[in-house]
Automatic annotation (TrEMBL):
Superkingdom, taxonomy of origin: Bacteria
Cofactor: Mn(2+)
InterPro entries: DNA_ligase_ATP-dep_C, DNA_ligase_ATP-dep_cent, LigD_ligase_dom, LigD_PE_domain, LigD_pol_dom, NA-bd_OB-fold, NHEJ_ligase_prk, NHEJ_LigD
UniProt source species: Lysobacter soyae
Annotated region (Disordered), positions in chain: 1-22, 188-215
Pfam hit, one: DNA_ligase_A_C
Entry protein name: DNA ligase (ATP)
Keyword NAD: no
Coiled coil regions, renumbered to chain: none
Length: 802
């Protein structure tokens, strides 16, 4: 029982603490709670608790959390606590365990960063975001001693926008303290107190060189109406806070990263303002700062041409030592305009629209901008998202074919809603949802007259899984075209909040099909990796970017696929057969070999890969054989799968020992990260050998390794025998068996991928999942050759003994 240790230490007839027997709450992965409690026990300390696995994982932090990244606080892991302990305050009797006063110091939610929280705790490094009233931003817990009783960790702050010279004791205003302790005595002696208020925090930050956390706007469907608002262009650029100290400027991104070296010309432009001390908020843009100019912005930064960029300032937070954040926006804007008037051309002033909100939005959209930002004239500058700043984006529209309709409900006349579809592949159609809102009564009546008496209960287009409430719909072939306002697509590939715009009598359904595109991407906004927000579009872009490296790894080989139509938190499945819709999705579908099953996927082109990505394929697992010769292995893979408790250095040592022993058998080998917790050692075979030779060799080699080091390795798949050992998985070396391809993504949190390494890199690699969609491309951009060289041209094969 997770709470057994907690209950054993307490007598619940004497202590007011919760017994943890109440039914546990079910929470979504994104809504994990945290609480920090100030505990005046025999030794005063802070209890730091994170919800995980239905309990509060708990650490005792003697001096409390520090906002200073250079300060690493000891955190002693203690027993798990029940979830309802998060709301506990009061006095524990002194004859009970932990006797003393408990008060809630802070509470909120937390989000793990960069991986599965359970795995990070097991590995001993948990990185996370806190979203509390006092504690915010990125934090780390790093285990320093894995004791069986009280493991010790370090708790420390990342150097982000929330970092600063503040201690937990500085923020005790409003925390319930024991009667015998007053606030003055509770604070650290010899330190100036900083109360948790806007005024105090402002005072703390005054003249600081650390970037302030920026004020953010909330997205709304329509701009606010009425007086008291101003409206600005929503620039399509990079949000930058510029800090001037003694005339020298630093530029910080929205996340608090120092971008000064990325934009030296912008630094010079800000310094040319000839201001001693100031903090400006704004956006760095290229060209006019429209949507079309964003690519030019990225290209300029990549080419080191920051002289082509302009810093468009829209707020002034501080000037010459005076903190302006408590002043109304209208005053700050006036001060900023006066400051920039007649100054350097590399710094511009963001003007205020002289029109209504709707008119300002329309002007911005017509000029190519993404939308507008509406701000209350009297708003103060406060970190984080606020109702005082609202952003309205242009409402995009698109055209779809009418493929059916539903019957009206309630008092509605004519039809209920139109069913819509978009082209798919060369000749197919895919259902994308329905539209009913925004259709006038006259148009509804016209549709009713046209559609009445037509239609079949059987869909005439492909309908994605999981759609509901279509049992009474009537379907027609794609014919007429309508234009609708769209606000993106949901996780099931259906339109989100669609509203009717107009009928397009000038177009036929077939006009929507592009004759030049063999493979198109549907549902680009679908979230496939919820934890990191990675979309289908980003997965598509990744595989296109690495195609020159990736395609040779799988081209002409039978494949098994891991598909995740609902994202990695949905129903992912392993697929060894290409479905009919895959095979008909393009003029160049995944092909098969006459010596394989007819529906075995085999790709031969870039478009074949794109088809599979379009069908939500995340992982590609090729055979160790080519499709034209599936009975002969041209490569072996040894998958080193460690017990979770083993340190990474043991996996590295194992890979090197496999490499050395293969070399003794006159076989060169290569290494890659698996995208999971282990490593793969790959052995190319040229000429290929029959599987009847390959599999026995792989088994014998793995068992030899076990015989040499039985305390470190196992060749048995039984998990009970893996404790404290590395499983040398040789079972992937048989006909029809597969292993993940180099450069393939994995359907795991953080979008890790399998990355080939040079043997010289292995010692500098920190884990099997360190490479991911976010950091792989910069690494590969510097390559001129594959880390394994021309490994397929290497002449080596298995030796036979007579």
């Amino acid at each position: 029982m997770a709470l057994e240790a907690y209950r054993k230490k307490r007598s619940f007839s004497k202590t007011p603490e919760p017994d943890g027997l109440a039914m546990r709450r079910k929470r979504a992965a994104r809504d994990l709670s945290f609480v920090v409690q100030l505990h005046h026990a025999s030794h005063r300390h802070y209890d730091f608790r994170l919800e995980l696995g239905g309990v509060l994982k708990s650490w005792a932090v003697p001096k409390g959390p520090s906002f200073d990244p250079s300060v690493k606080r000891m955190a002693v892991e203690v027993e798990d606590h029940p979830l309802d302990y998060a709301g506990f305050e009061g006095k524990i009797p002194h004859d009970q365990y932990g006797g003393g006063h408990v008060a809630v110091f802070d509470a909120g939610t937390w989000t793990p960063i960069g991986g599965d929280a359970f795995e990070m705790v097991e590995k001993g490094h948990l990185k996370f975001d806190l979203h509390g009233e006092r504690l915010k931003g990125q934090w780390h817990l790093v285990r320093t001693r894995k004791s069986a009783t009280k493991p010790q960790w370090l708790l420390f702050k990342s150097d982000d926008a929330w970092a600063g010279p503040i201690e937990a004791d500085d923020l005790l205003e409003g925390v319930t303290l024991p009667d015998a302790v007053d606030l003055a005595r509770a604070r650290r002696p010899g330190k100036r107190s900083a109360l948790h208020s806007n005024k105090a925090v402002s005072a703390k930050r005054k003249r600081s060189s650390s970037p302030p956390a920026p004020m953010l706007a909330r997205l709304v469907d329509r701009p606010p109406v009425g007086s008291g608002w101003i409206h600005e262009i929503k620039w399509d650029g990079y949000r930058i806070v510029a800090i001037l100290r003694h005339g020298k400027a630093r530029l910080y991104s929205r996340n608090g990263l120092d971008w000064s070296t990325k934009m030296p010309a912008v630094v010079e432009a800000v310094e040319a303002l000839n201001i001693d001390d100031a903090i400006l908020d704004g956006e760095v843009i290229a060209g006019k700062g429209t949507r079309e100019d964003f690519n030019a912005l990225q290209a300029a930064l990549k080419a080191g041409r920051s002289d082509a960029l302009v810093y468009m300032a829209f707020d002034l937070l501080e000037v010459d030592g005076e903190d302006l954040r408590e002043l109304p926006l209208s005053v700050r804007k006036a001060r900023l305009k006066a400051l920039l008037d007649g100054r350097n051309g590399g710094v511009g002033f963001t003007q205020v629209a002289k029109s209504s909100a709707d008119r300002a939005l329309q002007i911005a959209v017509n000029a190519g901008y993404e939308g507008i930002i509406s701000k209350r004239e009297d708003s103060r500058y406060m970190a984080g998202r606020s109702e005082d700043w609202l952003k309205t984006k242009a409402i995009a529209s698109d055209e779809f074919a009418i493929v059916g309709y539903t019957h009206p409900k309630g008092g509605r006349k004519g039809i209920g809603a139109l069913l819509l579809a978009t082209p798919e592949g060369k000749s197919g159609w895919r259902y994308v949802g329905r539209v009913g809102s925004g259709i006038s009564d006259d148009v509804l009546s016209a549709f009713a007259r046209t559609l009445d008496g037509h239609g079949t209960p059987r869909p005439t287009v492909r309908v994605p899984e999981n759609d509901t409430d279509l049992s009474k719909a009537l379907w027609i072939p794609p014919e007429g075209v309508v234009e609708v306002y769209v606000r993106g697509f949901g996780g099931n590939g259906l339109l989100r909040q669609a509203s009717f715009k107009t009928v397009r009598p000038d177009k036929r359904a077939e006009d929507l099909r592009s004759p030049d595109v063999a493979v198109s991407l549907s549902s680009p906004e679908k979230i496939l990796f919820p934890e990191s927000g990675i979309t289908k579009q980003q997965v598509w872009d990744y595989y296109n970017a690495v195609m020159d490296w990736f395609l040779p790894e799988i081209e002409g080989r039978p494949l098994s696929l891991v598909r995740c139509p609902g994202g990695i938190d949905g129903n992912c499945f392993f697929q060894k057969h290409a479905t009919a819709d895959m095979r008909s999705a393009s003029a160049k579908p995944p092909k098969t070999s006459a010596s394989l099953d007819a529906d075995t996927p085999v790709v031969h082109s870039e478009d074949d890969v794109r088809i599979l990505v379009q069908f939500n394929t995340l992982e590609f697992h090729p055979w160790g054989a080519r499709a034209e010769s599936p009975e002969h292995a041209d490569g072996l893979v040894f998958d080193l799968d460690p017990d979770p408790g083993l340190p990474w250095k043991e996996v590295v040592r194992a890979a090197r020992e496999v490499h050395d022993n293969l070399r003794k058998a006159s076989l060169a080998s290569f290494v890659r990260t698996s995208g999971g917790k282990g490593l793969h050692v790959f052995v190319p075979l040229n000429p290929p050998v029959p599987w009847s030779d390959a599999k026995p060799f792989a088994e014998a080699f793995a068992k030899t390794m076990v015989a040499l080091h039985p305390d470190r390795y196992t060749a048995t798949a039984n998990k009970a025998k893996r404790t404290g050992r590395i499983f040398i998985d040789w079972l992937r070396n048989g006909r029809g068996s597969t292993s993940v391809a180099s450069f393939s993504l994995r359907a795991r949190a953080g979008a890790p991928l399998a990355m080939p390494l040079a043997w010289s890199e292995l010692g500098r690699t920190e884990g099997g999942d360190v490479f991911n969609l976010a950091n792989a491309l910069p690494r590969m951009a510097a390559w001129s050759t594959h880390p394994w060289g021309d490994y397929r041209a290497l002449k080596q094969t298995l030796r036979h003994s007579d």
